[in-house]
Amino acid sequence: MSDTVKKWPLKVAISLAMLIIAAGMGQRDDAEHSALRTVHGTVVDSQRRALASSIVYLHHQATHTVKTQIADSDGRYRFSGLDPQADYKIHAEHGEWTSSSHALPAQGKREVVLHLKVDQPKARLSFENAPTDLVDELDDPAD
What is the tens place of the pLDDT at every residue in 70-95? Predict the structure, then answer.
Protein backbone atom coordinates (compact mmCIF):
# COMPACT_ATOMS: atom_id res chain seq x y z
CA MET A 1 0.00 0.00 0.00
CA SER A 2 1.33 3.41 -0.86
CA ASP A 3 2.11 6.11 1.71
CA THR A 4 -0.60 8.36 0.22
CA VAL A 5 -3.33 5.79 0.86
CA LYS A 6 -2.10 5.18 4.43
CA LYS A 7 -2.11 8.92 5.25
CA TRP A 8 -5.55 9.56 3.75
CA PRO A 9 -7.62 8.66 6.90
CA LEU A 10 -5.37 10.90 9.02
CA LYS A 11 -5.84 13.84 6.63
CA VAL A 12 -9.61 13.34 6.63
CA ALA A 13 -9.71 13.18 10.44
CA ILE A 14 -7.66 16.39 10.76
CA SER A 15 -9.85 18.17 8.21
CA LEU A 16 -13.03 17.11 10.04
CA ALA A 17 -11.61 18.23 13.37
CA MET A 18 -10.76 21.65 11.91
CA LEU A 19 -14.28 22.00 10.49
CA ILE A 20 -15.85 21.12 13.84
CA ILE A 21 -13.67 23.64 15.66
CA ALA A 22 -14.45 26.34 13.10
CA ALA A 23 -18.19 25.64 13.35
CA GLY A 24 -18.02 25.90 17.14
CA MET A 25 -16.26 29.26 16.91
CA GLY A 26 -18.92 30.51 14.52
CA GLN A 27 -21.65 29.51 16.95
CA ARG A 28 -19.89 31.35 19.77
CA ASP A 29 -19.67 34.48 17.61
CA ASP A 30 -23.39 34.15 16.84
CA ALA A 31 -24.14 33.78 20.56
CA GLU A 32 -22.06 36.84 21.40
CA HIS A 33 -23.76 38.83 18.63
CA SER A 34 -27.23 37.76 19.76
CA ALA A 35 -26.36 38.87 23.33
CA LEU A 36 -26.08 42.46 22.11
CA ARG A 37 -29.05 44.66 22.92
CA THR A 38 -31.53 46.55 20.76
CA VAL A 39 -33.89 49.38 21.64
CA HIS A 40 -36.56 50.57 19.24
CA GLY A 41 -39.94 52.22 19.25
CA THR A 42 -41.87 55.25 18.08
CA VAL A 43 -41.63 58.94 18.86
CA VAL A 44 -45.09 60.43 19.44
CA ASP A 45 -46.64 63.72 20.54
CA SER A 46 -49.08 64.24 23.42
CA GLN A 47 -51.94 63.07 21.16
CA ARG A 48 -49.96 59.87 20.37
CA ARG A 49 -49.40 60.93 16.75
CA ALA A 50 -46.10 59.80 15.21
CA LEU A 51 -43.46 62.52 14.97
CA ALA A 52 -41.38 62.06 11.83
CA SER A 53 -37.83 63.48 11.80
CA SER A 54 -37.57 63.58 15.60
CA ILE A 55 -34.05 63.15 16.93
CA VAL A 56 -33.54 60.31 19.41
CA TYR A 57 -30.49 60.49 21.68
CA LEU A 58 -28.92 57.41 23.27
CA HIS A 59 -26.37 58.29 25.97
CA HIS A 60 -23.84 55.64 27.11
CA GLN A 61 -23.50 56.40 30.82
CA ALA A 62 -19.93 55.12 31.31
CA THR A 63 -18.25 56.55 28.21
CA HIS A 64 -20.50 59.62 27.84
CA THR A 65 -20.81 58.94 24.12
CA VAL A 66 -24.07 59.81 22.42
CA LYS A 67 -25.60 58.06 19.42
CA THR A 68 -28.44 59.67 17.51
CA GLN A 69 -31.14 58.41 15.18
CA ILE A 70 -33.64 60.40 13.17
CA ALA A 71 -37.12 58.93 13.35
CA ASP A 72 -38.52 57.81 10.00
CA SER A 73 -41.76 59.07 8.42
CA ASP A 74 -43.76 56.88 10.84
CA GLY A 75 -41.82 58.14 13.88
CA ARG A 76 -39.87 54.88 14.26
CA TYR A 77 -36.29 54.67 15.52
CA ARG A 78 -33.88 51.81 16.26
CA PHE A 79 -30.52 51.36 17.99
CA SER A 80 -28.91 47.92 17.75
CA GLY A 81 -25.60 46.34 18.69
CA LEU A 82 -25.72 47.84 22.20
CA ASP A 83 -23.40 46.63 24.93
CA PRO A 84 -25.37 44.40 27.35
CA GLN A 85 -23.04 45.43 30.21
CA ALA A 86 -23.66 49.17 29.81
CA ASP A 87 -26.21 51.58 31.25
CA TYR A 88 -27.88 53.93 28.78
CA LYS A 89 -30.30 56.84 28.90
CA ILE A 90 -32.57 57.70 25.98
CA HIS A 91 -34.78 60.65 25.07
CA ALA A 92 -36.24 62.28 21.96
CA GLU A 93 -36.54 65.85 20.76
CA HIS A 94 -38.74 67.45 18.13
CA GLY A 95 -38.50 71.17 17.49
CA GLU A 96 -38.79 72.98 20.83
CA TRP A 97 -40.17 69.88 22.61
CA THR A 98 -38.56 66.92 24.37
CA SER A 99 -39.50 63.62 25.98
CA SER A 100 -38.63 62.41 29.45
CA SER A 101 -35.29 60.66 29.77
CA HIS A 102 -35.58 56.90 30.26
CA ALA A 103 -32.94 54.65 31.83
CA LEU A 104 -31.90 51.41 30.13
CA PRO A 105 -29.96 49.56 32.83
CA ALA A 106 -27.24 47.02 32.14
CA GLN A 107 -28.33 43.39 32.15
CA GLY A 108 -31.78 44.42 30.99
CA LYS A 109 -33.78 42.76 28.25
CA ARG A 110 -32.00 42.08 24.96
CA GLU A 111 -34.78 43.82 23.07
CA VAL A 112 -36.52 46.87 24.50
CA VAL A 113 -39.53 48.51 22.87
CA LEU A 114 -39.86 52.07 24.13
CA HIS A 115 -42.28 54.67 22.83
CA LEU A 116 -41.05 58.20 23.53
CA LYS A 117 -43.70 60.87 24.13
CA VAL A 118 -42.42 64.33 23.23
CA ASP A 119 -44.65 66.50 25.40
CA GLN A 120 -42.40 68.80 27.44
CA PRO A 121 -40.93 72.14 26.38
CA LYS A 122 -37.14 72.13 26.20
CA ALA A 123 -35.45 73.91 29.07
CA ARG A 124 -34.18 77.29 27.98
CA LEU A 125 -31.17 79.00 29.39
CA SER A 126 -32.04 82.46 30.55
CA PHE A 127 -29.83 85.00 32.25
CA GLU A 128 -32.67 87.43 33.02
CA ASN A 129 -33.20 86.12 36.56
CA ALA A 130 -29.64 84.96 37.21
CA PRO A 131 -27.82 86.43 40.21
CA THR A 132 -25.75 89.39 39.05
CA ASP A 133 -22.55 87.99 40.56
CA LEU A 134 -22.83 85.01 38.17
CA VAL A 135 -23.30 87.07 35.01
CA ASP A 136 -20.25 88.84 33.61
CA GLU A 137 -20.78 92.29 32.24
CA LEU A 138 -20.08 92.44 28.52
CA ASP A 139 -18.14 95.33 27.13
CA ASP A 140 -20.15 97.34 24.66
CA PRO A 141 -18.13 97.33 21.40
CA ALA A 142 -19.45 100.85 20.71
CA ASP A 143 -17.51 102.21 23.74
Answer: 999 999 999 999 999 999 999 999 99
